[in-house]
Amino acid sequence: MSYLKTFLSHSFSKLVPKTYICGGSARLLSDVSFVHRETDVDSKNFEFNADNKKRAEAIVSIYPEGFRSAAVIPLLDLAQRQYGWLPLKAMNYVADYLQMPRMRVYEVSTFYTMFNRQPIGKYHVQVCTTTPCMLRGAQEVYEYTKELLKDEKDFTVIEVECLGACVNAPMIQINDDYYEDLTNEDVKQIIA
Asked: Has 22 been labeled as part of a binding site?
């Protein structure tokens, strides 16, 4: 068994540069907590505010009777927008609201990289590094962006898989806004 583990890790490290293995990718941020235990940052109670309760009711109402759980992704997104990230108590609240097993909500929140399982900065900068973006200079844009914002507490910079703007690569997403066909100079102007 240890031979296989050594072989796989050695072979994998030859194929994938270290920056991808231990870089700040969305995969690493989204699967931080597979255990789903409360931490110090999870300690606050969570409940939708009045406006979001109305939104949640409207979202759930579009699904047929018996299919409330189909609203899990939009309600997790709503919870994340309200709180800034997705703590365990918010996931539990959504599960209880939808009358579904908490584990199903945990599965969804850890599968999709759009859900942030740790606190993030006010500005969430996601740099696409999938093949089309990579071929057009995304790695340089990513490294430049990380360096430019390394001391900024309000910014979280991560590397993500395809954001669906391949025709205008390379691109970044800052919160909900896309910026495409970028150079390092463009990034500097956008951030400034």
From this structure: no
CB-CB contact of 191 with 160 (8 Å):
no
Place of tokens 């979202």: 59
Pairing of strands 155-160, 172-174: unpaired
Q: Is 166 annotated as a binding residue?
A: yes
Backbone angles phi, psi at 2, to 5 degrees: -65, -30
Q: Domains in the chain, ordered, with CATH?
A: 1-26+119-192 (3.40.30.10), 33-111 (1.10.10.1590)
Tell if the pTM clears 0.85, that is, is over it: no
Q: What angle do CA 90, 86, 122 make, to 5 degrees?
A: 130
Give the per-residue SS3 of 28-72: HHHCCCCCCCCCHHHCCCCCCCHHHHHHHHHHHHCCCCCCHHHHH
Name the 3-class secondary structure at 122.
coil
User: 133: annotated binding-site residue?
Assistant: yes
pLDDT tens string, the chain, 192 residues long: the values are 444 444 444 444 444 333 333 344 444 444 444 555 666 666 678 999 999 999 999 999 999 999 999 999 999 999 999 998 999 999 999 999 999 999 999 999 999 888 988 888 899 999 999 999 999 999 999 999 999 998 878 999 999 989 999 999 999 999 999 999 999 999 999 988
